[in-house]
UniProtKB/TrEMBL annotation:
Its cofactor is FMN; [4Fe-4S] cluster. The lineage of its organism: Bacteria, Bacillati, Actinomycetota, Actinomycetes, Streptosporangiales. This is NADH-quinone oxidoreductase subunit F. Its EC number is 7.1.1.-. It is an enzyme of class 7 (translocase). It comes from Sphaerisporangium album. The gene is nuoF.
Length: 429
């Protein structure tokens, strides 16, 4: 059993001053990086195998390499800190406890892609996080780590912390760019991709908080050190967020490829007297798993091979007291509310999924409604403008696949079986 955690980003979280420069350090990785050739930094990140920690898992170094050089245009770095996926809770605590890892990563990344302006786009509701990141940026400016001629290298960098307005759609990188430019946050048609025409129609790299914060450790310890952890194709470490019906919920930083069984052992298991029923490997927009998937390695390839996605490694744990239909309804209500309305499949599809699921959860539907919701989901999947629509279909398809009997039980008793305390037909006392 793997019991070894890899505290890198979380190494100083137990310090009272972790969020300050005194608790973090003197940006030694940035000093080293600014003495390197920018292309050598990109190569190091490529060689490390770091893949995007925001959900898609795209190779980070490859994304940086897409930025055209010598084009005469301004280049921009945008950090996607608009964490809003239900169940995902890694970037916000990271920015609260260790914001300087992010700021140092921003310096290194901006230098590598030849950008002199960087933006950290933070979800508007988390005011305490915005203030924490602003304070870290201010400290860095005061120490001369940001601004002009950083570390005497001749490199200039201005960093802006931007507050979003709390729209889930702005977690999609092109919608985030529109919002950053002052427009309504809606996804753009691609191509062109942000690497060619992003912020202000200039080459732009958009990366997740954890992706950028991982860069200083790669520069400090080397690409081989990072690549030695994880699996062959999913290298390195990541923050796994355990929430829900678990004894010790929290952030567990471990190599990719660890299993939920191993994480649960470290987290004290499912809450006392209960058993695992279903869980999400990467937030609510990933197909759900059951207790049959406890030993699936949590890396991009293994999770994908079993029919789900690693996503943001948001492990929401549900025990046998949870109604699957109700949980899926709640998620669907969220997606219907957060749909930007730009494309018909998502705008109309999520609305009707919500309506039918409400009827199903109350026990007022029929078995034909299961066909209806899967048909609606089929017509959204692959046809929506961005990934929000696709994500909304994941709980639908997977819950019907794994828990069809539970849907049928709602029809049989004319309501939710978990609302009937005296019901014994559903295995309840």
């Amino acid at each position: 059993m793997t019991t070894t955690l890899t505290p890198v980003l979380t190494a100083n979280w137990d310090r009272a001053d972790a969020f300050t420069l005194d608790g973090y350090g003197e940006y030694e990785s940035a000093k080293r990086a600014l003495g390197m050739d920018p292309d050598a930094i990109i190569k190091a990140v490529k060689d490390s195998g770091l893949r995007g920690r925001g959900g898609a898992g795209f190779p980070t170094g490859m994304k940086w390499g897409f930025i055209p050089q010598g084009d005469g245009k301004a280049h921009y770095l945008v950090v996607n800190a608009d964490e809003s996926e239900p169940g995902t809770c890694k970037d916000i605590p990271l920015m609260m406890a260790n914001p300087h890892a992010l700021v140092e990563g921003v310096i290194i990344t901006a230098y590598a892609i030849r950008a002199n302006h960087a933006f950290i786009y933070v979800r508007g509701e988390v005011l305490h996080v915005i203030r924490r990141v602003q304070a870290a940026v201010r400290e860095a400016y005061e120490k001369g780590y940001l601004g002009t001629d950083i570390f005497g290298s001749g490199f200039d960098l201005e960093v802006v912390v931007h507050s979003g307005a709390g729209a889930y759609i702005c977690g999609e990188e092109t919608a985030l760019l529109d919002s950053l430019e002052g427009f309504r946050g809606q996804p753009r048609l691609k191509p062109p991709f942000p690497a060619v025409a992003g912020l202000y129609a200039c080459p732009t790299v958009v990366n997740n908080v954890e992706s950028i914060a991982s860069v200083p450790s790669i520069i400090a310890n080397g690409a081989d050190w990072f690549a030695s952890m994880g699996t062959e194709k999913s290298k390195g470490f990541g923050i796994f967020s355990l929430s829900g019906h678990v004894t010790r919920p929290g952030q567990y930083e471990a190599p990719l490829g660890i299993t939920l069984r191993e994480l649960l052992d470290m987290a004290g298991g499912i809450r006392a007297g209960h058993r695992l029923k279903f869980w999400t490997p990467g937030g609510s927009s990933t197909p759900i798993f059951t207790d049959e998937h406890l030993d699936v390695p949590l890396d991009f390839e293994s999770v994908g091979a079993k029919g789900s996605m690693l996503g943001t490694r948001a492990l929401q744990i549900f025990d046998e007291t949870t109604c699957v239909v109700r949980a899926v309804l709640r998620w669907t209500e969220f997606y219907a509310h957060e749909s930007c309305g730009k494309c018909t499949p998502c705008r109309e599809g999520t609305y009707w999924l919500k309506q039918v699921l409400r009827r199903l959860e109350k026990g007022q539907g029929t078995e034909d409604d299961l066909t209806t919701i899967t048909d609606i989901a089929d017509n959204i999947l692959g046809r929506s403008f961005c990934a929000l629509g696709d994500g909304a279909t994941s709980p639908i398809h997977s819950s019907v696949k794994h828990f069809r009997d539970e849907y049928l039980k709602h029809f049989e008793i004319g309501g939710c079986p978990f609302d009937h305390a005296a019901s014994t037909v559903w295995g309840k006392a």
